[in-house]
């Protein structure tokens, strides 16, 4: 829960009033979230979608870490005897053209 994250979210939305309209709540509710940094769980995903401020920044207690991408999880390894350069051996393609 960060005051900075909510302030950034309100700026990204254009204003606290604009963010309130997007969330379907009162401007006073958004002002309270900005002043305390406390974001109700029901608003976190909508704020992220509207402003681009990550759920982790808004509620690190609910969303502890940003999820790694698939590329970060998959190691680039090749089976024994195969190079990582490509699936086709260049010498095979040369023989086919002869």
Automatic annotation (TrEMBL):
Q: Which domain of life is it from?
A: Bacteria
* InterPro entries per UniProt: Lambda_DNA-bd_dom_sf, YdaS_toxin-like
Q: Name one GO molecular function term.
A: DNA binding
| Gene3D superfamilies in the record | lambda repressor-like DNA-binding domains (1.10.260.40)
Q: Where is the composition biased (Polar residues)?
A: 89-98
Q: Where is this region: Disordered?
A: 59-98
Write out the transmembrane intervals: none
Record-given protein name = Helix-turn-helix domain-containing protein
């Amino acid at each position: 829960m960060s005051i900075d994250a909510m302030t950034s979210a309100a700026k990204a939305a254009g204003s606290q009033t604009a963010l309130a309209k997007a969330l379907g709540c009162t401007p006073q509710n958004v002002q309270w979230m900005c002043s305390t940094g406390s974001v109700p769980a029901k608003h976190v995903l909508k704020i992220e979608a509207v402003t681009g401020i990550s759920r982790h920044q808004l509620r690190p207690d609910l969303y502890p870490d940003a999820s790694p991408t698939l590329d970060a999880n998959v190691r680039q390894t090749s089976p024994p005897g195969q190079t990582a350069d490509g699936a086709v051996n260049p010498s095979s393609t040369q023989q086919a053209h002869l």
